[in-house]
Every structure is written in C-alpha cells, then in structure tokens.
Specification:
Elements: E1 4-9, H1 24-35, E2 41-43, E3 47-53, E4 60-66, H2 74-84, E5 91-97, E6 105-109, H3 117-126, E7 132-137, H4 147-150, H5 157-180, H6 182-189
Parallel strand pairs: 1-4, 1-5, 5-7
Antiparallel strand pairs: 2-3, 3-4, 6-7
Helix pairs in contact: 1-5, 2-3, 5-6
Amino acid sequence: MADTWLIVGLGNPGPRYEATRHNVGQMVMDELAARRREAFRAHKANARVVETWLRPGAAKLVLAKLNCFMNVSGGPVASLARFYGVDAGRVVVVHDELDIPYDTIKLKIGGGHGGHNGVRDIAKALGTPDFPRVRVGIGRPVGRQDPADWVLDPFGSVERQTLPILISDAADAVEFLVDEGIVAAQQRFHAPRA
C-alpha cells in the first residue's frame, strides 16, 4: 500500500474548541473531505476518518481527525499508521503554527516541534520526527496574552474574513505535497502572495 497517505488534522475535541486557532488542522480535514463529498466515520484508533483518493487513479488518502486532546495525539496517529500500513514519511500532519504569521502556510519534513505538544507527541509515538508537516500560520498574540490562551481562542473577526481562503490554501498544499512532493510544494506555497 505504498500509495496510501495518512493526513492528520490536529485539534481538540468538542464544540468548545471547534472554531479555535488550535483546531485549524481539523478545519483543513473538513475542507478536504467536503471537496470529495465524503463524511467522517468512527475508527477504532480513537479517531474519525475518511478513506478517499487524491483523484481517481491516484494516491489513496486517509483523512483523520482525532477524538483526543492535542497533547496526546501520538497514540491515535501511530495506531492509524499501523492500521493502514503507512510509514512516517507518508503521515502528513496539518497543524497551527504560532511562529508563522497568520494567512501563511509553510511545509517541512522533520525538525523540532517548536513547542507544539501535538507534534511532539506524534514524533515520540512514531519514533521519529521525520514526517511531513503542513504548518498553518496563526501568528502570535499582540500584547501580553499568553500564547496558550491565544491558540484556544476563536479566530478574530478580521481573521474570519480570510479564514476560508487560508483553509482552502492549506488543503491545496496537502494535495500538492502528495502529488508533487515536498520540494515542489515548498516552492509553490512558500512564495510571497501577489
């Protein structure tokens, strides 16, 4: 099953967190599923999944939203990877990133976790940090607000005006990464917007 990719959108469960910055990864999963007119279903790995295709005849995609809190994401991700026979190089993690300005997308493979507890736990559970990441910029809070509170706040009114575009762009980045590889995806999505 070398053509199968596990795409995981990080977030926290429940209505309290649905619209928060920390859940932007799950918003991207919703966009990818909606593009394919698919609905998430329960999986025994404490997750909800959609099994679909990049496009007919192309790579299989397993889109996943975890039912656990962000800081314990590793167990379900590792279980899903084992279940679908996917190695770490084909586990794409989509997550919020404080150190990237809002409305910016960056891609990388491996490296540190940058203080992101979900990414840290996944690297520990997979036994390697060398998995692709689509990092969706949420920026840092202005003033003295604690970043831990900032990520659990809903997007602001100005951000919400462009949030659908950001989510769509991040979904495009996932598809492009699977289709064309990390270098081509970086060249496309790291370029400044016109």
